[in-house]
Amino acid sequence: MENKLYLLMADKQLDPQEYQQMFQLLSPERQERLRRISSKNAKQLSLLGDILTRILLCEHFNLSNKQLSIDIGNHGKPFLSGYPNAHFNISHSADAVLCGICNTPIGVDIEKIKPANLAIAKRFFTFEECEYIQEDPKTANERFIFLWTRKESYIKWAGGGLSIPLNSFDVLKVQREVVFYSEKLDGYLLSVCAKFPPQEIHRLDMDGLRERMEILK
């Protein structure tokens, strides 16, 4: 299966009844994790990310929702227990949820384009990456986000979490056996790290998500 990307735009709050209907489709462990999230927006995005992930795993690997046992690795990367060739990764920002699914490891990240603290680059980026940001002051902010999403996607692909120092690798260069793919969409910047780039981005709205939820019931 090729690397597939799905982008969900969720610009409205779920009503309590619909939230609860989706909540009941998750495992007890995931339900407990959601209960511990205090921010209402973060809680909804996390829920929608879980639902989207479950839909895609069921669709692409011919599984039922009850067969899905999603565990968390030592460094926080989720994986589908018992299915070593089913790989997925998820990210959300503002109103967007991004999910990548593949039969080889994948890491994804999405960030809304907004003013960033560029001083962070001096602490966490390589010298060459800092130079790249400073080349053009007009695009410095967007270049920072471009690099940040690539770094996040890389450490999520590797599954090492924050145990991998962000300045220990340069995302402007080829990294081992992986490739990077980045795209700017609707005020967001997304990046993917995988064995090969995605062929396209499948876009979903909330109505499209609701239609595909039937596979989980």
TrEMBL record:
GO terms for cellular component: cytosol. GO terms for biological process: lysine biosynthetic process via aminoadipic acid. Keywords: Transferase. GO terms for molecular function: holo-[acyl-carrier-protein] synthase activity; magnesium ion binding. Residues 16-98 form the 4'-phosphopantetheinyl transferase N-terminal domain. It comes from the Bacteria. InterPro entries: 4-PPantetheinyl_Trfase_dom (IPR008278), 4-PPantetheinyl_Trfase_dom_sf (IPR037143), AASDHPPT_N (IPR055066), P-Pant_transferase_sf (IPR050559). The keyword Transferase applies. Gene3D superfamilies: 4'-phosphopantetheinyl transferase domain. Belongs to the P-Pant transferase superfamily. Gsp/Sfp/HetI/AcpT family. This is 4'-phosphopantetheinyl transferase superfamily protein. It comes from Youxingia wuxianensis. The lineage of its organism: Bacteria, Bacillati, Bacillota, Clostridia, Eubacteriales.
